[in-house]
């Protein structure tokens, strides 16, 4: 992995960790209280973290990409990445609790690991792709 790519990945991970704190707090509050089922609580929590992630990533991490100056398109593609994450989070937490164990923490950890990798790839190579790569 190139040094620049590693730096981007590490900053992405740090921002994602902050968003995950919000995500998990909302998830835990809703799921443990019984207000929502585990899958829906995971989706709501993920959505809250998504908003924070976009604000931080667009301002501090991915600037000057191929969508620079086209904010509506950037927001729309980021929303698609969020939808991918929400669907994965919902499906994996529901599947985990239904098939493996009734453990809210382990279900969320499994969902987080899978969605982190998939969503990072989508954001890095689609949403915030560098302008130089898009021109090729």
Automatic annotation (TrEMBL):
GtrA/DPMS transmembrane domain sequence ranges: 11-128
GO cellular component, one term: membrane
Bilayer topology term: Multi-pass membrane protein
Pfam families, per the entry: GtrA_DPMS_TM
GO biological process assignments: polysaccharide biosynthetic process
InterPro entries referenced in this protein's UniProt entry, alphabetically: GtrA_DPMS_TM
Annotated TM spans: 12-30, 36-55, 75-92, 104-122
Domain of life: Bacteria
Compartments where found: Membrane
Keywords assigned by UniProt, alphabetized: Membrane, Transmembrane, Transmembrane helix
This protein's name: GtrA/DPMS transmembrane domain-containing protein
Taxonomic lineage: Bacteria, Pseudomonadati, Pseudomonadota, Alphaproteobacteria, Hyphomicrobiales
